[in-house]
Amino acid sequence: MRKGALLGVSLLAMVPGVVFAQDNPAPASADPGAGPDAGIVVTGSRIRVPNATSVSPITTVGAADLAQRGVTRLEDMLNTLPQVYADQGGGNRGGTVGASGTATINLRNLGNQRTLVLINGRRLMQGDPARSAAQAADINNVPAALVERIDVVTGGASAVYGSDALAGVVNFVLKKNFQGLQLDASNGLYQHDNGNPIAAVATAAGQHPAQGSTFDGLQQSISLTAGHNFAGGRGNVTAFVGYRHIEGVGTNSRDFSTCNLNATASGYACSLSSTTYPAQFQLTNPATGATRGSYTLDRSTGNTLRTYRTSDGFNNGNTYDLQAPDERINADLMAHFEVSPAVEIYGEMMFMHDKSDIRLSPTGVFTVPESINCSNPFLSAQEQNLICSSVGLTPAQNATVNVSMRNAPGGSRHDITTHTSYRVVGGVRGQFARGWHYDVYAQYGRTNYDSRLTGDISLARFANSLRAVAGPNGQPVCESALNGTDTACVPLNIFSTTGVTPEALNYVQGTFTRTGFTEETIVSGSVTGDLGLTLPMASNPISVALGTEYRDERIGFTPDSHYSSRDVAGNSGGEYPISGAFNVKELYGEVRVPLAEDHPFLKSLAVESGIRYSHYSTAGDTLAWKAGAEWAPSSAIRLRGSFQHAVRAPNLVELFGPQRVTTARLTDPCEGAHPTATFAQCAGSGVTADQYGAIEPAAGQLSGALVGGNPNLRPEKSNTKSFGIQLAPPSLRGLTLSVDYFDIKVDQLITTLPATITLSQCITAGAFCDQIERNPATGSLVNSGYVLTTNINAGYLQTSGIDFAASGRQSLEDLFGSRLGTVGFSFSGTFTNKYEVQIVPGTQPYRCDGYFGVTCGQPIPTWRHRATFDWVAPSGAVRLAATWRFIGGTSNDRTSSATFLTGSYQPYDARLKAMHYFDLAASFDVARSYTLRLGVNNLFDRDPPLTASTSGQTSNGAFFAGMYDSLGRYLFASITARL
């Protein structure tokens, strides 16, 4: 090929997808030392092939693109790919479904638990035992500076890699045969100009939004890589150590995140929590228990009560982080040595320690009934009269008051979360006959988890502190301190705006801990080779891969006694120990059959298939399989298609999460003297003839709900259809284009059904009646009665669409006749045609493609793309690049006509606008041994689109973190020194 012709970027003429702005990426590689006929192993298959073709779409991101973006967090890079949706990461908000301190990958928005993560083609263990939302591999374990490339295969790949690959596979391929010493250092920070009109909303609510220009969110990383080849290149040892430091950015540092938003008829308003400070008091009638009214302290007097108003609510929107502070250490050691072509010994040792400071809003005591003694010396005369005397309670009696209080004097809580991971791989591989290779390895991985929560309140100590009495010297003391049941108790005066003392806070507040681990052990062996059988019209023989694998997964989680006794105010539902394990034994095989090669209209024609049988100690037997074909009529065009049947066994938390009965707000149509459901309908839910019409209504419509894991879960199953075309037009030499259609459907979805839906389905359709357990004596859904809301297999998820990719490179000398360097481009875009959800089998599904909101969660735009344009100087010493990222607009799911999505919304909250982001980067080779990189991401400092309709773990107040740039323009500089 003539100098400067359009060379493309890597092997895109053969491998689908896109490789971003890099000179010499390698989307597939042979194992070192495997011999001249080793062939190439492509992510998505274990068969060695003579080229880099694949019937599954593959997107490859190279090390140069990671450097070009200046990332210290790999998830920030991956989230820019159209196929990847935001998940756990540094921008997640603390809370029940929020930040975990991990970083996970979510392909096609099918959930991180349905994306399999590999390092060098081998599993990365799960990263967190505490949260089901983080029961996936934590890519904090991956050292960014060691990454050679990242292969992303979308679509089911269970036949090749096993469970969890329903949405696809992300394979981090690390550098091999590194020689020398290399130092990498990077610094970056955010610059943002506050000027969002939403600031007026916060100001109107009495808040103080940030103003002016800010510089914050410093991200620093430094790493050292040392490698040495020995024995004539037959062996290599590479060592790596890296440190990363990220400073936090609070929501109070951006004007658009000062408040959570509420959509009203007159416009956006700050969404305020009724759990506030000063406290809200719901007073009840001691005779009937009925609520008399809600009150709070009158700030003008400081110690009298007035009627509570919604404007008294607490703004917790500015008490979280947009970026959590984080520190991480990575250390890795990799080695291989070829004793002979038949025996190569290899090993990997990886260590990661990550510490995150996850900030949560000041804790709240959420409408807890408290016993207030009417003789409490902190009560003013007006308070004593309103709470006690006015309803006939004497000083010797107690009033039951429902207290809602935000611990504003104590400030934000901090969940100091650490994950310490170890991963060890040891194996032997080689060539035992011409064309035949083997690989046997053992792998062990473990993640230790530790959480230390500060600033939360013990409900037991809070209750003690509210019962103040006059002490021997006339000063208020705790009743429990006088009677000796809790001598450490300090009385808490919540009946005065200036009454809370540091001593009382120190007593009611505590530090609460959780520990746990996940553990994975794998033993695997495989052989690959050709059968020595070549079909008449083919040049290459039939190839196969056969293997077996044993995997053992374990989990342990131990919250302290405060959590397990439901004593932590901010987690009053409680957390309970988890202990469980499962193992799986597997056999798998693949075959590739070249049918014809190098014939007219048959440049290449091949079929392939694979199958994997698995036996789970918990879920029983499963079978995953695939079938595909590719046809290249000429070197200019290649067509491919595949069908894959994949499975996902339930993970450890889904199986072994502790079951417990909590409360659910629902109306039982079978309760009361005149039930709204017929006896026949109620009988299906377990009501007897004697109980019908005699079931006492549940107080406050709070019935029982059994939540937790389910050891009887069945595996999820998915079917993936994919077909596409790749073009390399001869008239545009080196230009590559690809279009791929995908359709992924996940059945027997592991999910939970709200108690209201379960009960409604039983009564109206006779479905899920086995999920209802009534009190055998009374027929009610309280006490020993409940609705089962543990994990079950129900419904489906389906998504389909089209991926587009293009790339090319052109020498400007060919165009203009002088040495002006080369220009290149790469493009990757995804059109999402369908994202469909069915919660209950047999009911009407609903669509989330093109929507966001309370039900659909983070936006699922119908179109996303990323385009990069670059220029390389004739010497190669200077490289400039510009990237255009586009996220299409989406509509509020309340605007949908689907039954599950209908609801009220305000017209101005009906849509999130399309977002355009532009990034610039430059790199300079200095004195042959140094490379300097400078860049800016989100060049124009675009704020994320705001809405009052957010939900899910990527929700950070009024916007969706990870999906959109939320901190402003990111300025970075890095240097690589090769010593």
UniProtKB/TrEMBL annotation:
Residues 1-21 form the signal peptide. Residues 412-939 form the TonB-dependent receptor-like beta-barrel domain. Its main location: membrane. Gene3D superfamilies: TonB-dependent receptor, beta-barrel domain, TonB-dependent receptor, plug domain. PROSITE patterns: TONB_DEPENDENT_REC_3. Residues 54-169 form the TonB-dependent receptor plug domain. It is a multi-pass membrane protein. It is found in: Cell outer membrane. SUPFAM superfamilies: Porins. The keyword Aminoacyl-tRNA synthetase does not apply. The keyword Membrane applies. Keywords: Cell outer membrane, Membrane, Receptor, Signal, TonB box, Transmembrane, Transmembrane beta strand, Transport. Belongs to the TonB-dependent receptor family. This is TonB-dependent receptor.
